[in-house]
Design goal:
Blueprint lengths: L1 H28 L4 E4 L10 H5 E4 L4 E4 L6 E4 L13 H16 L5 E7 L1 H4 L4 H10 L1 E14 L2 E11 L5 E5 L3 H13 L9 E5 L13 H10 L4 E3 H4 E5 L8 E2 L5 E3 L4 E2 L2 E2 L5 E2 L5 H6 L4 H4 L6 E4 L8 E2 L7 E3 L3 E6 L4 H8 L2 H14 L9 H6 L1 E3 L2 H8 L6 H13 L3 H18 L7 E2 L7 E4 L5 E6 L6 H7 L11 E5 L5 E5 L4 E5 L5 H8 L1
Parallel strand pairs: 1-4, 4-5, 6-8, 13-19, 24-25
Antiparallel strand pairs: 2-3, 5-7, 6-7, 8-9, 10-21, 11-20, 12-16, 14-15, 17-18, 17-20, 22-23, 23-24, 25-26, 26-27
């Protein structure tokens, strides 16, 4: 307890100097008047009314001094909260304190100086929700490791709030000088001049306050992902924790191997030294949430480490069974695509660009770990051919995957993808009654030509993404010089079928591929 009291006393001294420094900096640079509410615990926040309303001794009347200040700096966290995880009741009290502050209707900007845990932890999400619902978050500046006393560090963040604004500026700093520059840039709306300081402007997403989530690197990641058809990992696979096995149930020999990260090298399992004794008591099975039959590894399971050593990703083969994965792994049981495809993607160069940066973005904790909920939300690129098979619940042909995975996924060749889609469209046309003699793949500038009759033809244009249909139609011009083709179909090969008329640029969404009879009536 004495150590905690000493730490709190040192923190108070640090905050005295810290507040004086940033107050002086903001006053000089941004030319703003600053009021300070320093060290007022949550339970004493009603005293804010005394700060915002002043009693005139002569008239005994209260006059508002709200307009005197452009900024109020507030430390809502009691000092001891900076050194421990706060309870649910304390989180609730802090969330309620923001209601009290809002009630005073201060029209300037509020600077809340808080531990970085407020931005990151799941337990503090109610506070972030309250802030995001009641205020406009103008800026968040994070100083992950600030020294407050002789190699004693805290993680500090400053949240800037007001009643107006539609975007948030985020910054991560590593020195007090960078902190001052970032704060003044956000408060004064003056463009930051130091290229070494990260600052970006984004809309807050899903109560995520962590500035690193909005780093420009991840903006580019979002743009890159948008060019692919994607499915969430949790939708294409079941994800489970590995087995937590108490030490007393580990043997030096046995039937069921216990796979730990140290047993995986270059995506292969080697030198199993621990084995699982399955004689758990009923009480222990309940206590450790054990379902041994479901937790046994089977060929095709994929192990992903909960930490960040992705050389440890491994595809379980027959020779690795029977075995259990330790709880240092997540076990991925693919349910919509062949596990070979998913594994090949996870160890590919494309995953280095798209998969692992997504994990890094949502990793939490001092020692970075992946939350199972976040892992389920990770987007996996799926070639259109595979997606079509997934949506039709048709089992994928293993050999076809081996044939296509290099061409489509890892080099993601647009031409190859469209070739596969063309084959799929031809199959759909044949299923709708079109004969092979009516379907022509000729060098006319279109993907497919349908010979409706001797005089009329119809083009079919296949695009991986048809969201910008106006632009696609604008680019489609009659190419066949002998027979002008003014009608056709634009499709993504996955169920979106649009009948278009190039003459008046009209379009009609179709539920299915039209039969020859229906198409003749549409052209009449």
């Amino acid at each position: 307890m004495k150590e905690l009291e000493k730490a709190v006393a040192r923190l108070k001294l640090f905050f005295d100097d810290f507040t004086e420094r940033i107050t002086s900096s903001i006053s000089d640079y941004a030319e703003m008047n600053i009021g300070l509410l320093y060290g007022i615990p949550v339970q004493r926040l009603p005293r804010l009314s005394d700060f915002l309303r002043q009693k005139d001794k002569a008239t005994q009347r209260y006059s508002s001094i709200r307009e005197e200040f452009d900024i109020i700096i507030i430390y809502p966290y009691p000092h001891e909260y900076w050194f421990r995880r706060i309870s649910r009741q304390e989180v609730k009290q802090l969330a309620e304190s923001f209601d009290k502050i809002k009630n005073y209707q201060f029209k300037g900007k509020l600077l809340f100086i808080v531990p970085q845990s407020l931005l990151l932890l799941k337990s503090t999400e109610p506070i972030r929700q309250k802030i995001n619902n009641d205020y406009c978050v103008n800026g968040i500046v994070s100083y992950p490791k600030i020294e407050f006393h002789k190699e004693s560090f805290i993680n500090l963040s400053i949240i800037i709030l007001s009643d107006k604004g539609n975007k948030t500026q985020f910054s991560i700093v590593s020195s007090l000088n960078e902190l001052e520059i970032s704060l003044n840039s956000i408060l004064s709306d003056k463009k930051i001049e130091d290229p070494g300081i990260f600052i970006t402007s984004r809309r807050i997403k899903n109560e995520i306050f962590d500035p690193s989530y909005y780093h420009p690197t991840y903006n580019r990641l979002e743009e890159e992902l948008a060019t692919y058809t994607t499915i969430k990992l949790g939708e294409m696979a079941n994800i489970k924790f590995g087995l937590f096995c108490p030490k007393k149930y580990l043997l030096t020999d046995g039937k069921y191997g216990y796979v730990r990260p140290r047993n995986v090298h270059n995506h292969k399992i080697h030198n199993i030294t621990d084995y699982v004794d399955l004689n758990f008591t009923k009480r222990e099975k309940k206590w450790f949430h054990l379902d041994l039959e479901k937790q046994k590894l089977i060929p095709g399971d994929i192990l992903i480490p909960r930490g960040f050593d992705f050389r440890k990703i491994v595809l379980i083969n027959e020779v690795d069974c029977p075995a259990f994965a330790s709880n240092s792994f997540y076990v991925i049981k693919s349910k919509k695509v062949e596990s070979r495809y998913l594994y090949s993607y996870l160890v590919s160069n494309l995953a280095d660009k798209l998969f692992f940066p997504q994990l890094e973005r949502v990793a939490k904790g001092f020692v970075k770990q992946i939350n199972i909920t976040d892992l389920r939300e990770i987007l996996i690129p799926i070639p259109p051919f595979f997606l079509q098979k997934i949506e039709s619940s048709t089992a994928l042909d293993y050999n076809k995957i081996l044939e296509l995975e290099d061409n489509i996924i890892f080099n993601i060749s647009k031409q190859e993808s469209e070739k596969i889609l063309r084959e799929s469209v031809i199959e759909s046309l044949e299923n709708s009654g079109w004969g092979k003699d009516s379907i022509s793949i000729e060098k006319s500038g279109y993907d497919i030509i349908l010979n409706v009759d001797e005089e009329r033809k119809l083009f079919i244009e296949i695009k991986i993404n048809i969201s910008d249909l106006d632009k696609i139609i604008e680019q489609l011009i009659p190419i066949d010089k002998q027979t002008v083709i003014n009608h056709g179909i634009v499709t993504d090969g996955l169920g979106k079928i649009v009948f278009v008329n190039l003459t008046d640029k009209s379009r009609e969404m179709l539920d299915e591929w039209p039969t020859k009879k229906k198409l003749v009536s549409m052209l009449s």
